[in-house]
Design brief:
The protein is an alpha/beta fold. It has one domain (2-247): P-loop containing nucleotide triphosphate hydrolases (Rossmann fold), CATH 3.40.50. Helix content is 29%, strand content 30%. The protein has seven helices and 13 strands. The chain has an eight-stranded mixed sheet, with helices on both faces. A hairpin with a 2-residue loop joins strand 10 and strand 11 (229-233). It starts with a strand and ends with a strand.
Length: 248
């Protein structure tokens, strides 16, 4: 279940009265204002809205890459808005997988080596690391490309390797920021198929930022972010604001 009224409890992600401000010189810019959100485990949420509306900022707050100006962020029972430094980095490593528009693979490493990187920070031995990497690459359909370098992969294959890297530690939550934005429709659909499968079959809680309505349709819930406020979309693409429906 997903709620935007702040009246839920026990969700895997709970945002309460979330504010985020930025400053440009003496100008104060309100990005998020009093935002509330509850998301249960296994949900697939798409965030849509105009450029500059705060979608990526919201994703970064959920993932502990940024801190709120006010309010609280609680994920998996941990109030991450109160964590910092090494504790926050360790929490991210255990709980969050990041998938970005740019694949961020290291050119001099093979697909296997890129996917293995997060595991080097764990206590797993070499054999266990190999088992995890091979499973992740198999899930995204790259078992036959594990020894290839990024330059030897297509854009879609690079993004699949990036997804394998994101899931190799078995995180509970996946944060996807325009993961199909640099791909053609066919390759993008393949990526969305994988992300949908991770939610439906493996119980991952997925947050997807996108400008693409076709990509958003893959989600179980679509939320529209504008002027610092979240509005829920109905199945036919209308915005719901209280009892009033406003067409996008």
């Amino acid at each position: 279940m997903v709620r935007v009224d702040g009246k839920g409890s026990g969700a895997v992600v709970e945002l309460r009265n979330l504010d985020k401000k930025y400053y440009r010189g003496e100008e104060e810019i309100d990005v998020l204002r009093g935002l509330n959100l509850d998301v249960d485990a296994g949900e697939f949420i798409a965030f849509m809205g105009p450029s500059g509306s705060g979608k990526t900022t919201l994703l970064n707050l959920i993932g502990g890459l940024d801190t709120p100006t006010a309010g609280t962020v609680r994920v998996n029972g941990d109030e991450i808005s109160a964590l910092s430094g090494r504790k926050l980095a360790a929490w991210r490593a255990r709980n969050i997988g990041f998938i970005f528009q740019m694949y961020n693979l290291i050119p001099v490493l093979t697909a296997f080596q890129n996917v293995q990187l997060p595991l080097l920070l764990t206590g797993l031995g070499r054999a266990e690391r190999r088992k995890h990497v091979e499973a992740a690459l198999g899930l995204v359909g790259l078992s036959d490309r594990m020894n290839h370098y990024p330059r030897q992969l297509s854009g879609g294959q690079e993004q699949r390797a990036a997804i394998a890297r994101a899931i190799v530690t078995d995180p509970k939550i996946l944060l996807c920021d325009e993961p199909t934005g640099d791909l053609d429709r066919a390759a993008g659909d393949e990526i969305l198929d994988i992300i949908s499968r991770l939610s439906k079959e493996y119980g991952k809680t997925v947050f997807l930022v996108t400008h693409d309505p076709m990509a958003a349709k893959r989600a179980s819930t679509v939320l529209h972010l504008d002027k610092g406020t979240l509005l829920e979309c109905t199945a036919d693409g209308q915005l719901v604001c209280g009892t009033e429906e406003v067409r996008r």
